Amino acid sequence: MDSTTTAQNPSNVAAAGASQRIPTIRIENIYKTYDLGEIQVPALRGVSLEIFPGEFVAVMGASGSGKSTLMNIIGCLDRPTKGRYFLDGKDVSGLTKDELASIRSHKIGFVFQQFNLLPRTSALENVELPTIYAGVPIEEREKRAKEALARVGLAERAEHFPSQLSGGQQQRVAIARALVNSPALLLADEPTGNLDSRTSVEIMEILQGLNDQHGLTVVIVTHEPDIAQYAKRALEFRDGKLRKDVSIQNRQIASEVLPTLPAPGADDDEPEEIAQNAPRGAANGGSPHETA
What we know:
The chain is an alpha/beta fold.
C-alpha cells in the first residue's frame, strides 16, 4: 500500500487522531511522601495513568490506599514529592501555590461529600462564589449561576438557603457551583456519601448527563462498588499503588435504575419488593451511605 492510500484510509486517520489527543490528566511516576517528624509515610508509590477528555472514571480503594492523596494532586490541592502531573497538557507539578489556585479556579470543579455550602447564603449566591474568585465581571456572575442551577434542575430554588433544601438538593447546588466556571474537569469526592439510595442515583444521573451529553470529564472517588458501576472506567488503589485499571462492564444507567426504586415518601410496607428493586441495599436497614 502506497503512502497516498495510507493517508486516505479512514481507519488510519482515526487511529492517528486518537494517538494525538492530549489527555486531560497525565500522571507520570508520581510519589507522595508525608513527613511526620522522624517518620516518613508513603501515600503514593510510582503511580502513572492517563485520563482523556470525556471519560468518566471512578477511583476506588480502602482507607489509606492513596486515592484521596491522588485526588488532592489531580485537583491541584497538593503537589507530588516526585514525578510529574500534566493537566490539559501543562506540567503543573512544580507550580507555586498561587499558580495552582488559579488553575483550580478556572479548570477544575469540585464536589464534596459534605456539600460545603455557606449556610446564610442563597443557592444562587453559593453558586456565584467561584466566579468571584475567578474575576468574572459582576454582570456575568448571576447569569452563569442561574444557568448552572438550571442544568441541575434547581432554577426555581435559586433564592432558597441550604437549610431550606434537602440533602440531594444541596448536592445539586454543589454540582452547579462546580460547573459555573465551565471547568475542563469535574472532581467529586464521595459525592453520594451522605445521601440515601434514591438520591444517590439521582446525583449519578446528573453526573452521567454532564459526561454523556456535554462531554465533561468526570472523576469520582468512592468506596462503593455499586456507585462505581455508573462510571465508564474504574481505578483501584491499594497501598499507594494503582492495582487495577478496568473498563466498566454492564454499566449502570441512572435514568434506567431510578424507575425501579421506591418513589420519595413511599411507604415501606412491602420490603420484599423493595429488596428486589433496590440494588443499593436500601432494604437492609438503610442506605450504606448513611455511615460513609
